[in-house]
Design a protein that fits this description.
alpha/beta; about 190 residues; globular; 7 strands; 7-stranded mixed sheet; about 45% helix
Length: about 190
């Protein structure tokens, strides 16, 4: 792995569940923090705690991350990633967005409480995706994006699930097109695609 991180880095880390994506992003954040005094790292978390298991998972991730990268701060932004990038991107700050898959889920399969709060409908996804891609290209500092590659398995049952898999594949392709580094993670090992 490169030890010097370019401030213009746009990295996409893809892989399956427990493939090492988040750890790789944390490693990049730790390297950025060690690279120069005054560097900052910020995790933009997209997960929402919709049940007890997810709350426990989020708490475990927070504890583990605090041990591995103690200098990295965290904000939660489950829907408006474009605004988060615009507000928090800076030449001295590396942003880690974890993860694009949950972000897409929050748009296309919103939790019942989100629907009650008059959250924008799923049709607004395309506009939100365009805003995000624009914000990613305009970011003033390095950005590391984490997402799932779920298109390698069997074709899922149900039209909604197939539509989600298609939307995620399209999102991954569009994000990869604007990133200068794309890495596929498997068994904790990186394979550079771009």
């Amino acid at each position: 792995m490169d030890t010097l991180i370019d401030p213009k880095l746009r990295a996409l880390l893809l892989g399956g569940q427990k493939s090492g994506k988040s750890r790789r992003a944390e490693l990049l954040a730790a390297q950025w923090l060690a690279q120069q005094p005054g560097h900052e790292a910020l995790l933009v978390a997209t997960a929402t705690a919709w049940d007890g298991e997810m709350r426990a998972r989020i708490a475990r991730h927070q504890r583990d991350r605090a041990e591995r990268v103690p200098g990295m701060a965290t904000i939660e932004e489950p829907r408006d990633l474009a605004a988060a990038l615009a507000a928090h991107s800076a030449p001295h700050r590396l942003l880690v967005v974890d993860c694009l898959t949950l972000w897409l889920t929050n748009w296309l399969m919103p939790a019942p409480e989100d629907l009650k709060q008059n959250m924008p409908p799923a049709q607004a996804w395309q506009a939100q995706e365009a805003l995000f891609l624009e914000a990613l290209q305009q970011a003033r500092g390095p950005v590391v994006l984490v997402g799932n590659e779920i298109g390698l398995g069997v074709i899922p049952l149900g039209s909604e699930v197939r539509a989600f898999v298609d939307a995620l594949g399209t999102l991954n392709q569009r994000v990869a097109a604007v990133c200068n580094r794309v890495t596929l993670m498997a068994a904790g090992l990186p394979l550079q695609l771009k």
